[in-house]
Design a protein that fits this description.
Length: 138
């Protein structure tokens, strides 16, 4: 059977496409960025925010939580105790967070607030900020 030029080009394209599709997983596997959470305060709200943040990082497909025994790429530090303020029957928690590399290269600061009974909201915001800041790490 004789194949014309169009059929040959299509066959070549199909072979290349299938080969690339077979290799795609190898090229698209993204490493999870290792992250360590540190705190500068030891009050209840700060400890609870750290716990919520560690849970959020461990659930994230983009990060892998690590400890001081491992070489982490990103350090997320809550440098001091979170601030809190009673607002009616609820308590608002405000935080500052700093992002840096393991070798102490400062990357960025961030801050935010949430209700003390919903610290997962603060944690999710910090994880989003950490995701944005990772492009600064080489």
């Amino acid at each position: 059977m004789h194949m014309g030029p169009i059929t040959m080009r299509f066959s070549a394209f199909l072979i290349i496409f299938l080969a690339m599709a077979a290799m795609k997983p190898a090229f698209c596997v993204q490493q999870r960025r290792s992250v360590e959470v540190r705190i500068g305060g030891d009050d209840g709200y700060t400890l609870r925010l750290r716990d919520a943040l560690e849970r959020a990082f461990s659930r994230s497909p983009k990060f892998r939580l690590c400890s001081g025994k491992m070489r982490c790429t990103l350090l997320v530090t809550i440098p001091h105790s979170v601030k809190w303020k009673r607002m009616g029957v609820r308590t608002q928690v405000s935080y500052d967070v700093e992002f840096s590399t393991i070798d102490a290269k400062f990357l960025e600061k961030s801050n935010g607030s949430c209700w003390e009974d919903d610290l997962d909201t603060c944690a999710a915001s910090i994880v989003r900020s950490a995701t944005d800041v990772t492009h600064k790490i080489h």
